[in-house]
Amino acid sequence: MKRISFLPAATALLLGVFVASPALAQEEPSSYPVGNPLGVPATPSADGSYEPMSSNVTVYGAIYSAESCVYDAERDLIVVPNRGVPQRVRTNDAFVSLINHDGSVHTPRWIGIQGPSERADLSPPLTLNHPLGSDIANGTLYLADRDGGTSADDSSVAVIRQFDLETGAPAGEIRIEESPWINDIEVADDGTIYVTQTGDLGENPDPATWRVWEIAPDGSASVFAEGAPLRQPNGIGLDSEGNIVVVNYGNADVLTFSPSGELLKTETAAQSGGDGLVIMEDGTKYVSSVRQGGISHIRSAESAELIARNIPSAASLCYDPEANQLVVPMNPNHGLAFVPLE
């Protein structure tokens, strides 16, 4: 088995990356056509008329094949990217919902109120195909997406899509040409982006496909880690010291790397099949298992403890600090699970 290859940013091989043009990356239109909160009309009208839904009505739903979520502190809402229908059925079908603390719907379709054919006519155009991981940093929503993959003959390529958190407008994209798809995403305060490439999942998988990518603030991509001890890396996060923490899907390992790529420690979740990761300020970790449905609570120097069980397809969870709860997307079950913390 190929061993891990740690490549410091200064010496890493830079791979093919496309960064959106400066005009697209810097353009911030004063008004971008995003969906209204629940009310009439759902789509903003030309005259700006809008009346909110009456307060005696509560709506649940607006989730379709969601794989991740992230808390928006400015809005005090949970941001949920929905994958929509599969790429082989229709491209550019994904959208982003805004959800309240109790799971009720605030805005069914914030980004992506338009159909695929209408999105190309927007300024700037909107593309959102199959978002998996999500993160918010420095006023920007980052989504781990991809292009292609519509058939066996159509190769896919990983794309990080960025959106202005205030307006919902596209704010740039980064293509990682050497990666077919990426899973989770974490953005450091300085703009450095870390993403996981889960890679081969079948029999006799190629360890060289198990990667963590590091994207510098200038958009250049390099392989941060490859192969063992990664085993189908999935969730990723940063601890309070700036170390990179990776959750394996292929076993129960939770790996902590220094920014230079040194493996600092290995912890073990209560279940394998890890997907999502939440890291608290004190270093406590919560890990979801998409395969076995549990939520592991990992404290330093203690064995992992299951605090929730049998959540169907427990995907990339997020922390809602205002409600002190974990929010767990449920992939093909088209829902969110809520786990209160003591």
What would you say this structure looks like, in words?
There is one protein chain. This protein is an all-beta fold. It contains 2 helices and 26 strands. It has a single domain (62-340), classed as 6 Propeller (Neuraminidase). It has helices at 22-26, 116-119; strands at residues 17-19, 39-40, 51-52, 70-72, 77-82, 95-99, 105-111, 134-137, 140-147, 157-164, 170-176, 185-187, 193-197, 211-215, 221-226, 233-238, 244-248, 253-257, 263-268, 274-279, 285-289, 295-298, 305-308, 318-320, 325-329, 336-340. The strands form 7 sheets. A 5-stranded antiparallel sheet has the order 1-11-10-9-8. A 4-stranded antiparallel sheet has the order 4-5-6-7, with no helix packed on it. The N and C termini lie far apart (43 Å).
Write the layout of secondary structure elements.
Layout lengths: L16 E3 L2 H5 L12 E2 L10 E2 L17 E3 L4 E6 L12 E5 L5 E7 L4 H4 L14 E4 L2 E8 L9 E8 L5 E7 L8 E3 L5 E5 L13 E5 L5 E6 L6 E6 L5 E5 L4 E5 L5 E6 L5 E6 L5 E5 L5 E4 L6 E4 L9 E3 L4 E5 L6 E5 L2
Antiparallel strand pairs: 1-11, 2-3, 4-5, 5-6, 6-7, 8-9, 9-10, 10-11, 12-13, 13-14, 14-15, 16-17, 17-18, 18-19, 20-21, 21-22, 22-23, 24-25, 25-26
Summarize the structure in short:
This protein is mostly beta strands and 342 residues long. Helices cover 3% and strands 37% of the residues.
Shape: globular
Q: How much helix is in the residues? A: under 10%
Strand content: 35-45%
CATH class: Mainly Beta
Number of domains: 1
Overall pLDDT, averaged? 92
CATH H level: which superfamily?
TolB, C-terminal domain
Give the CATH topology: Neuraminidase
User: Would you tell me the structural class of the helices and strands?
Assistant: mainly beta
Give the biggest beta sheet.
Answer: 5 strands, antiparallel
Q: What's the helix-strand series?
A: EHEEEEEEHEEEEEEEEEEEEEEEEEEE
State the strand order across the main sheet: 1-11-10-9-8
Quaternary structure type? single chain
Number of helices: 2
